[in-house]
Amino acid sequence: MGIHGRDESLRLLANAAAAAQDGCGRLVVVRADPGLGLSTLLDAHLAQMRAAGLPTKRIAVLPPHGRTALSVGTPEWPEAGVVVIDDLHLADDATVLALHDLADELDGRSLLVVAGRHPGAVPARFARLDRLATTHDLPPLDGSAVDAVLAELAGGPPPESLRQLAAGAGGNPRLLSLLAADDRASAVTAWVTELAGEDAALLRFAAVLGDPASVEELAAAAGSDPVDVLTGVERLAALGLAAEEHGLVSLRHAVVRQALAAKSAGLRGSAARALIDRGAPPEVVAEQLVHTPVEPWTAAWLCEHAEQLSGKPTPAVVDLLERAVSRPSPGDPSLHPLRAALAEAQLWSGQLDAAQRTATGGLIADPEPPVRHRFRAVLTLIRIGEMDLTGAAAILDAEREHGELPPRLAVLAATACLLSGDLAGAESAVQAVDPDGATHPVVAQCLLNIDATRRMVLRDLTGALEQLDRVDALLETEFAENGQWIMSRMLRAVVQDLRHDPAALDTVEQARPLARELGVGIVVWLHTIAALALFNNGRWDEALGEIEAATELPDLHSFEGPLHGIAATILVHRGDLPAARAHIELAEGVAPRGIALFYEQITALAQAFLADAEGDSQRSLEIVRKLANGEVGVHHSHAVATVGTRLVRIAMAGGDRELAERLVAQMRELSAGDSLGERGALMYCQGLIDSDVDVLLAAAQEFAEDGLRIIAARAAEDAAKVLAASGRSADARAAYRTAIERYTALTATGEIQRADAELRAFGVRRGATGPRRRPKHGWDSLTAAEHRVAELVAQGLTNREVAERLIVSVRTVDSHVSKILAKLGYASRVEIVLGFDRRT
Q1: Would residue 88 count as lying in a domain?
Q2: Which of 122, 149, 486, 516 is deepest in the core (most CB within 10 A)?
């Protein structure tokens, strides 16, 4: 194979040789990991120098003691020429010392000495030489050079399979050259094990244990001490074969790991037994057993650890359980427990059809009650995941024929009730759980998730998060089940969004991969949670993307209402009423059921928004009254508390002050004070009812700081209306500019058009070219909230007194004052007082 990708290195050596011919001789040390083609590079350099007419000499390092021509001192070489020493890392100490002396003598001579070595070989031994020499590190081949190597190996354009293999070679020419071998695994294994020497066994165990493997796991599998393992790993790292970080060992090249694993399968059984003896986690042991025959001891071990393995299965666990189930004879007592574990593993790995077949077949065999309960649980969970709560209840009813439900099934009954909106039924099912059974980790996790849901519905958001934190603690300290993990993630995202916490979006992304595995019912719920959180955080285009992805699913499980409701609300804000109407019609065409019942207020609110935008205030008020009366959704208090600001605004715009006051009273009753937006929501609603501009501006600022952009824009607009109605035109324009800027950032064209029309009635206009860009300095650069703070400071109020007047935090006022001073170029509050009356 030719030399590829080394033009820069050859140019560097050629330049060094040319400089030597001009009397600037030097020592160049080229460092390269094994397989990077160091010898090939040095040979190519010598060939170039010979072609250029220069005298050349290659010095061999002789095994086994590493003697060279320099072992007895510096030889008498010709003044001009090139000398190459390969494999310097294998040379004896005398050679290294001779090179120290030679490096000092080369200046002023016409001799270039090039030495090549592996960089990881006892670095301290070569430290002084590296300081005396010019060093050059040979890098792995880049993409174009790899393509050239592959084309040479394939005799033309390389096939895609060869390209994929090459991606695991890390640009190592030696490994690349072995990819075309008839028995690639054997060729690669032979090269790396010879290179590893005494550490070859450790290298093999690292390959079979996975990537990465802990030092403790390697020590257990190899029957060695962790200290000895670390020492061996350091030697392998020096060869460029392995790396260790924070106690985890990985092989540098995927091609090497795959080849060694394929050729070291015989080690897996002994590795599994050693890992079991050392108390390794069951999933680590299973990764080894999947590659070995299922023996009686294997089946016994699987039965003992089935619950831990099946709750959060890997593909290896599913494969292992499938083989274990096919092995026993029909009367083998391990068959039914293994089959139950397989059904659970299939369920939590997203193989729902297979899980249903396994569980249904297992029930036909009439197993003992504990195993029968596990099969029933699998079938019930499949129905819950499909949002078929009636089907889930039917499966549980079949078990009730045998007596009271065991704890695992009782909590599933409670979950089904809860998801159908039946809080009383959920509480009754929870009360039926045997206290002893509640100590089981999965049952305990499920009970906490149920209680978190109940607290969330009743607006105890802090309490809900506390329960979810307890679930997470159990998931970390006990064995984890994917079902409880995904439920806790989904619930946490909902609670975080209700608290106006942007972290809801991060939680959604944590849940997304597993949700995709577990079925359409979970996925469409996740899309709904994500779309709502994105809407609330002002990321409307992304929210529409989530809705589009959801509506492409084969079954929306009656989530059409909230999904199309969110889309309709965005389109109303953007002024596209025909498209909003189309979404509303799609939402109205499906009766909500299951979890979607908890989101029914979203559809109702979208209908109210559309009616209001179309000028049908009576229709809009009628919908708001239904929400206030608890006629929409399964728990109207949850709905009113969540969307109260929008309802109160519609009520006030429609002239129904009594309805608005009733809504605010409901919000106060439901407020627990633990939501980032509750304080601002109540401020805003009361400000609307009382036409209190100070309260409206303060609420607008809090909304903006909490990231609630659409409500912040509306609050600023409402403040502008109150200011305009009281004749304060200049202040109204400032507030109006703030509102328009916030609407513009959301591309809420419909809101801008409506605000223009409503404020024009008060004589407040923003001009034909759109809102004037606020200057960066001077009094006109202040926002409406900042202007109000400056006015109160000018009246002599302290920051705390300003905060109390505006019903905001002192921190918010401190921030405003700092911004005011910066924009006005003032150094103190005194200048604000003096400058307020002189402002233009």
Answers
A1: yes
A2: 149
In the block, residue with structure tokens 């990991």: 33
Q: Which of 88, 109, 139 is the last residue of a domain?
A: 139
Do the Cβ atoms of 718 and 688 come closer than 8 Å? yes
Tens digits of residue pLDDT in 670-684? 776 555 567 778 888
**Structural domain for 20, as ranges:** 7-139
The CATH number of whichever domain residue 814 belongs to comes to 1.10.10.10
pLDDT mean across residues, the chain: 86
The reply to whether 81 and 150 lie within a common domain is no
| 128 and 51 within one domain | yes
* Number of domains into which the chain is organized: 3
Separation of alpha carbons 238 and 276, rounded Å: 31
pLDDT (mean) for 557-586? 92
N- to C-terminal Cα separation, the chain = 81
Alpha-helix runs per DSSP H in 197-314: 200-209, 215-222, 226-238, 254-263, 267-277, 282-289, 296-311
Please report the DSSP string for 571-606 in residue order: HHHTT-HHHHHHHHHHHHTS---GGGGGGHHHHHHH
Rg (CA), the chain: 37
The H-assigned helical ranges of 629-728 are 636-653, 657-670, 678-690, 693-705, 709-725
At 757-810, the pLDDT tens digits run 878 777 776 544 344 456 777 887 887 778 888 888 888 888 888 877 776 677
pLDDT at 639 over 50: yes
Look at residues 430, 419, 441 and name the one whose alpha carbon lies nearest to residue 491. Answer: 419
CA–CA distance, 751 with 291 (Å, rounded to integer): 63
49 and 159 co-located in one domain: no
Side-chain-facing half-sphere of 75: CA atoms under 13 Å: 12
| Cβ(56)–Cβ(46) below 8 Å | yes
Q: Which of 159, 180, 201 is the last residue of a domain?
A: 180
pTM score > 0.70 for this model? Answer: no
Chain position carrying tokens 């059904």: 343
Closest CA to 211 of 161, 168, 174: 168
* 73 in the same domain as 92: yes
**Whether 134 and 145 share a structural domain:** no
Alpha helix locations (H) across 589-656?
Answer: 600-613, 617-628, 636-653
Peptide bond into 34 cis (omega under 30): no
CATH number for the domain spanning 80: value is 3.40.50.300
